[in-house]
Amino acid sequence: MTEKEVWAYLEEVFDPEVPVLTVVDLGVIRAVKIEEDLCSILITPTYSGCPAMKVIEEDIISKLAEKGISKVKVDLTLSPAWSTDWISENGRNKLREYGIAPPENEVDKSVLFAEPTVVPCPLCKSRNTKMVSQFGSTACKAHYQCIDCLEPFDYFKCLK
Ligand SMILES: [Zn+2]
Fold first, then answer.
1. CA geometry: angle at 108 spanning 95 and 160, to 5°?
2. Among residues 85, 97, 106, which one has the least CA distance to residue 27?
3. Residue 56 main-chain phi, psi, to 5 deg
4. pLDDT at 109 over 50
5. How far does the centroid of ligand 1 lie from the alpha carbon of residue 95, in Å?
6. Distance (Å, rounded) from C-alpha 129 to C-alpha 135?
7. What is each CA distance from 3 to 10, 23, 117, in whole angstroms?
């Protein structure tokens, strides 16, 4: 077993919130370390208290067990905090294809000013969109609708 192999196996572990993204796309895997027969994986939660993290941890352990790696240790690190900037370019493209607006690369000022972020429509790219609800299909997403083409879509937010 090599670190490279483990990274490749992790590409088969999908995020429970957004099933098109792997945990590698999402950028939550911070480090993979192999010491003798122990595989240690360091992950950073997308936001503290995200219930999906427990699922991700279990999915990583069962995926590696499936590949014959039984001694796996998953540790969490909260610093530096996960940011949507860590989502890979590949991951952003997959989000768009899936019809979810990828996170904007800017500080989410909505937290400070209580105004929803302007999120471009994944279908027609219009910025004329409105937030329909703070929470979409899961707590990590907000529900938006495009005013121009009327497309409803989820915005992946994950507040810290
Ligand atoms: Zn639109």
1. 80
2. 85
3. -60, -45
4. no
5. 15
6. 16
7. 11, 16, 38
**What is the spatial distance between Cα 121 and Cα 124, in angstroms, rounded to a whole number?**
6
pTM of the model: 0.68
Structure tokens at 144: 């938006």
Report angle CA 89, 101, 57 to the nearest 5 degrees: 65
Which residue, among 59, 61, 22, 29, has the nearest Cα to 44 in the 3D structure?
Answer: 29
**CA–centroid distance, residue 117 to ligand 1 (Å):** 16
Task: Give the whole-angstrom CA distance, residue 140 versus residue 135.
Answer: 7
At 50 the three-state DSSP class reads coil
Q: Report the run of H or E that residue 51 belongs to, with start and end.
A: none
Question: How many angstroms is it from 129 CA to the middle of ligand 1?
Answer: 8
* pLDDT tens, position by position, 59-76: 999 999 999 999 999 998
How far does residue 82's CA lie from ligand 1's centre (Å)? 29
Residues, CB-to-ion distance under 5 Å, ligand 1: 121, 123-124, 126, 146, 148-149, 151
Show Cβ contacts of residue 25 under 8 Å, excluding neighbours closer than 6 positions: 15, 87, 88, 90, 91, 94
The model's pLDDT over 25-64, given as tens digits with 9 standing for 90+, comes to: 999 999 999 999 999 999 998 765 666 778 889 999 999 9
